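Retry 2 of 3 after timeout on previous attempt. Resubmitting structure tokens to design endpoint.
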């Protein structure tokens, strides 16, 4: 199998540290690239824009030097990678939408409008303390500390999810010619439209739908082994296909 570059894109509010455990889980044949999106992590001082988010992926994917590239994103990151793949449908060796199989319109969109309103009402300090408590309860202490130290990103939430609701639909998968993985937690609200996403990926050589048992929306953090195993199937296929 050829060496593969895997670009992992985090969700809203968090940062690249959420992927800390994945290089070890995926092994030495995978080059793992974990950028911060605008308004997140080391880039918290930046304003979120859709064009800047896509430019982040341009840089992370890099020039077409023959290396197979698998692009994977969780939540907000999943919708960003969907949009990038739609603009570059023949560039990727694999695409994974993680916790991003809900159509961002109608009732599904209301949850993120509510999140933005709650954040504005509570303020950054209270939101940060809430995130601290959640991660301390769910994660190993070192990982929770790494995410906290790199910094949460709340300011970009309204612009980020407004962009997702404006820009993203399942039909954007129609011209993607790479294999597609739709990976969701069993209890994740954003898997509700996974069948529609699967039908939309009509040009993909294969489409896998994987559901992590008892997984919430944060399942890449709480179920890293299961998430990595699903990603590895996609990576291995991409590496073999590339020869």
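Retry 2 succeeded. Sequence:
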């Amino acid at each position: 199998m050829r060496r593969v570059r895997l670009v992992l894109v985090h969700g809203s509010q968090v940062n690249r540290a959420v992927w800390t455990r994945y290089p070890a889980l995926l092994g030495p044949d995978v080059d793992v690239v974990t950028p911060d999106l605008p308004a997140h992590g080391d880039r918290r001082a930046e304003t979120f824009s859709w064009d800047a988010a896509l430019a982040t992926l341009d840089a992370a994917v890099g020039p077409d030097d023959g290396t197979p590239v698998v692009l994977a994103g969780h939540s907000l990151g999943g919708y960003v990678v969907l949009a990038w793949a739609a603009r570059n449908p023949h560039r990727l060796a694999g695409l994974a939408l993680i916790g991003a199989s809900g159509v961002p319109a109608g009732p599904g969109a209301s949850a993120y409008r509510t999140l933005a309103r709650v954040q504005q009402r509570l303020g950054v300090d209270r939101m940060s303390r809430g995130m601290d408590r959640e991660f301390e309860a769910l994660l190993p202490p070192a990982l929770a500390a790494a995410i906290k130290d790199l910094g949460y990103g709340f300011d970009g939430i309204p612009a980020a999810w407004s962009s997702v609701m404006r820009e993203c639909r399942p039909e954007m998968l129609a011209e993607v010619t790479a294999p597609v993985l739709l990976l969701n937690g069993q209890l994740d609200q954003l898997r509700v439209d996974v069948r529609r996403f699967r039908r939309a990926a009509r040009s993909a050589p294969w489409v896998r739908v994987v559901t992590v048992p008892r997984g919430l929306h944060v399942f890449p953090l709480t179920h890293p082994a299961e998430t990595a195993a699903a990603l590895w199937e996609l990576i291995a296929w991409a590496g073999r296909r590339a020869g």
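Attempt log closed. Strands lie at 4-9, 30-33, 69-74, 94-98, 180-185, 207-212.
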